Amino acid sequence: SGSDTFTFTFPPTIIVRSGGILLDQTTNKVIRFPFNSIIAILSGGGFGATGTVLQIFQGGVVGASFTVTLASGPFTCGMLADGSVQTYNSVTAIAVMSGDFTAAGTFLGGFAPSADICSGGCGIQVIKGVTLSTAGLNGVLNFKITSIAVAIGATFQLGTPGASTGFKFKFPITLSIFGGMSFVCSGGYIMLPPGSEFDISDGGEFSSSISVSIEIFDPLTGLAIGPLQTLGTLISGGTFKLTVSASGSVATGGTAGGLGSITFLAIRSGDLTDATVWGGGVAPSGTFSISIPAGITITISGATLSLEMVRCGVSGTLALGSGSDTFTFTFPPTIIVQSGGILLDQTKNKVIRFPINSIIVMLTGGGFSATGSMLQIFHGEVAGATFTVSSASGPFTCGMLADGSIETYNSVTAIAINSGGFKAARTFLGGFAPSADICSGGCGVQVIGGVTLSTTDLNGVLNLKITSITVAIGAIFQLGTPGASTGFKFKFPIKLSILGGMSFVGSGGYIMLPPGSEFDIADGGEFSSSISVSIEIFDPLTGFAIGPLQALGTLISGGTFTLTISASGSVTIGGTAGRGTTTEMPFSTSMMG
């Protein structure tokens, strides 16, 4: 009262309950808060009047602000550590630290959801970089949480690891996944009441180590309503939406293509179109993926599959084209044959036709039923390039590129065809991005001409067992995170083959390689960096550096360059142009940091 503005020196958590009022008596209608403050106005609570400015004031510096336009709640305003002001027309708990749903320390200002606070409904916002766990809820969310929004770069972990009972939302909820959502139980369903919605935005992802389904239940009786809605183990690379009406009926949709589709899990052998073959008793339709467990054979009869099967995981057998001369996929599939899985060609002429943007991957232990099958591009009713299978077992990858060419590799290889991040499914042909599961036995990455592959989303460390990265002429491999001073570490031995360009985009640190690695730049290829950078060899067991730094400088071009690291960590350097094409920084002990 009587002052121009009012300033909180320390971050408060202000909760205005029903009937309560936050009264601004400053002359200029300005209330200032440091980072990590939060104001929550519950239903029935309010401000003395509209027009007050809520402003960040940190270290004597005025920051972002918000002008109050509503005199009553519900309303939440949070001052985040990044200097932003986040506001919601709801009572919203903001997860700012990785942790459990039940822990006050997980949320801004300790404002965690509770039965009391959420009696009129609450929202949850999970900000970038945060993982919100629900393990502490023991499989049931009993609070009236009406929405959970997961930002880009955030993760929502649903369920309790090892639990076989799934997870139940007691009240209708909207799940909005811009980042990642993972189901971590070993069994059970995701149980939703009528009036719920599950949205995955373009770039968001749902994953599970087991094939999981959504069960709609009646809140009054607890009994299931209608068939299960199969999600499978992965939804990514496109949008996905599942809406449950007030009566319990379900509508699903999403963008065409990509992996934005429901995964159907086979429970017995039979034809693709037989509803009894699939969990939930519904045959695949629309844009879908299928998963074939070990011991089960799924047959796609006839000469053509006109349904849009975007992904097929095969641990059993996928049999194609029984009784027909050839077999043709109308839409481009991503077929992944796991160890023990078989792709069975039953056509008379041993010809399987694919449109462009298809990919077939055989993991170690998976394979074809026999050699001699011809994999052929068939696009716009025109037969194109072909490849004849000469090995019955994996690892093997065959990709049908948009330029009409077929690329094959005697390895599990992800092919980057669009500029983007290393973890983004849309970056790779058929959405087949490297993952810990797929690459457990080792993977290669191929970056085709015209594509820039970024590693920003790896946060400075490649933890996957990537054994090789090949960058084609006209392609660029961007290593590191812009502005990061921690460099980039390859956890496993790798061979970097640069026929195009490789750029280090960090502001500091080293390129860290373990023994057994190799760094090759072909004639015409180039390495560049805005800062002078070096390679550090490290011991994978201890993490300590081995030997001196290997200075690369800011540019290597105009000739070949090879740096080879032996199993003991010793380094050999060569190239047609010698080190004369390397812009070097003199080595000194100070470079060791």
Give your account of this protein's structure:
The protein is mostly beta strands. The protein folds into 4 domains: 1-89, no CATH class; 92-260, no CATH class; 263-410, no CATH class; 413-576, no CATH class. 0% of the residues lie in helices and 43% in strands. The protein has no helices and 59 strands. The strands form 10 sheets. Strands 12, 14, 15, 17, 18, 20, 21, 23 and 24 form a 9-stranded mixed sheet that branches. Strands 45, 47, 48, 50, 51, 53, 54, 56 and 57 form a 9-stranded mixed sheet that branches. A hairpin with a 5-residue loop joins strand 9 and strand 10. The protein is flat.
How many domain regions? 4
Helix content: under 10%
Radius of gyration: 28 Å
Amino-to-carboxy terminus distance? 54 Å
Strand content: 35-45%
Tell me, briefly, the overall form: flat
Q: How does the major sheet shape up?
A: 9 strands, mixed
Number of helices: 0
Question: Strand tally, please?
Answer: 59
Which regions contain 5 or more consecutive residues with pLDDT less than 50? Answer: 256-260, 578-593
Q: Average pLDDT value?
A: 90
What class do helices, strands and sheet pairing give? mainly beta
What characteristics describe this protein?
mainly beta; nine-stranded mixed β-sheet
Summarize the structure.
This protein is an all-beta fold. Helices cover 0% and strands 43% of the residues. It has no helices and 59 strands.
SSE blueprint and pairings:
Layout: E1 6-7, E2 13-16, E3 21-22, E4 30-33, E5 38-41, E6 46-47, E7 53-58, E8 61-67, E9 75-79, E10 85-88, E11 92-95, E12 99-100, E13 122-126, E14 131-133, E15 140-141, E16 145-150, E17 155-158, E18 167-169, E19 174-177, E20 180-183, E21 190-192, E22 197-200, E23 205-216, E24 229-236, E25 240-244, E26 250-253, E27 262-265, E28 270-271, E29 287-292, E30 297-300, E31 304-305, E32 308-314, E33 317-320, E34 327-329, E35 334-337, E36 342-345, E37 351-354, E38 359-362, E39 367-368, E40 374-379, E41 382-388, E42 396-400, E43 406-409, E44 413-416, E45 420-421, E46 443-447, E47 452-454, E48 461-462, E49 466-471, E50 476-479, E51 488-490, E52 495-498, E53 501-504, E54 511-513, E55 518-521, E56 526-537, E57 550-556, E58 561-565, E59 571-574
